[in-house]
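Section 5.1 Outputs to date
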Amino acid sequence: MNLLDSNLLFASLVWGSIGVGYCIYGKRQQAIFPLVAGVLMIVASYVVGSVLWMSLACAGLMVVVYWLAKQGY
């Protein structure tokens, strides 16, 4: 696993930035699910060492938050 791989660094930047956006949105709207998903995205961008698995995990979190929002939670 090469931690200085440019693809991994770029994916971490993108998913971490989206996670920060979710955190800010969740905090301002006082919504727990986007806040938690944002924190998990930030953690995934640091912990997961594969671009594929990081992208799948973060995209999955986005789908879960969207689904929960449509359900009215």
